[in-house]
Amino acid sequence: MASIGTSLSRLRTLYELFEKRLRADSGRTARRPVGPSRLQELTNFGSNPGNLRMYVYVPDGVGPSPPLVVALHGCTQTAASYDQGTGWSDLADRLGLVLVFPEQQAANNPKNCFTWFLPGDTARDGGEALSIRQMIAKAIEEFGVDRSRIFVSGLSAGGAMASVMLATYPEIFAGGAIIAGLPYGSASTVQEAFEAMFNERAPSSRALGDVVRAASNHRGPWPKISVWHGMADTVVRPSNADHIVRQWLDVQKLPERPSGEERIGRHTRRVWKDATGDTRLEAYSIAGMAHGVPLATAGADSCGLAGPFFLEAGISSTVLLARSWGLDTATARKRSPQIQPSVDREPATPALLPALALDSAPRDALRAQKNDGYSTGWADPGTVIEAAFKAAGLPVPGRTGGRMIDPAAIISAALKAAGL
User: Fold this and answer.
1) Residue 5: how many CA atoms within 13 Å on its side-chain side?
2) Is the overall model pTM greater than 0.85, yes or no?
3) Which of 39, 116, 154, 205 is most buried, taking the most CB atoms under 10 A from its CB?
4) pLDDT of residue 5
């Protein structure tokens, strides 16, 4: 019992720390009213084992074989609020992009966090990962998307879920962006998720790369990776950015030392190129920025709307991602101006990447199922545990045949009494 009490106390401490940091960062920027959504919901996109919703934005008169961007919101957000904050649909009007916005449901997780760590949702052809893959297939079928120009981007839990998609379906994506996210495979339980978010770790590059290689049978070519994070983020440990970079450097067999570095105002961009000179990985360190998506709300690169977790930084991740993916030239309509080149860039000497971070609140990942072969009454301790996690807004550890997969999960039975 002592070990259960200790584990419960540790879990409660981690959860309270997460809540405190999330509130602090959300209060840094004034809340803004969320206007009418420009998104349209699509249903019947597949078996949807992750129980997600699918929203899309398709500009009027979009051309043949348009590129597709999948945009994944963070905790406490919706598809519509993420679109308005990042400005993706405004950019889509200019460039002729098709957008897919997967959305978490409160029935799955009260904080609307994607499941970025539980095995049932982060393995190829299962759970939320498969739901998002099915959304992409639906967009290809409905809108004639160019299969060679599919990209994914996300913030926080959505950024970590972008890591999942890039690892489990690398053959689908030409590139991906992880904004304040975690590397793939960094956790598989609730406590591991919190530990990965908050604590300094030192996984080897080989171990990080092995997790990606084991996620599919794909052996290259690999998606181009873009990593972003605010260096004043207090929600999670900034070192996660370094882990993401090292994971993909190992997968793509690139040297640790970057090919080059530049200053963009106060911010830093580092790039890693392959033998042909093609940029395969880039990493942005956003000086002074807390947890969120970096925005530029004035000037040539203006895009998005500032608010909690959408932060004015004088640099727009949305615009620069479109530029790095070639979307500003390959698909821009003749009547629309192309995105203007960035200014105020200063060359700097190569250096190793500083670290990044994530906000991702863990989630209630496995949904209650009826008539699934195990007891649903109070005689089943798994049901009590699951109910406690749901009430806390925490992810539910997986179970099979009525037995909890995670032995440490027994402590969750006391969560309600503990006020979690």
Assistant:
1) 2
2) no
3) 116
4) 73
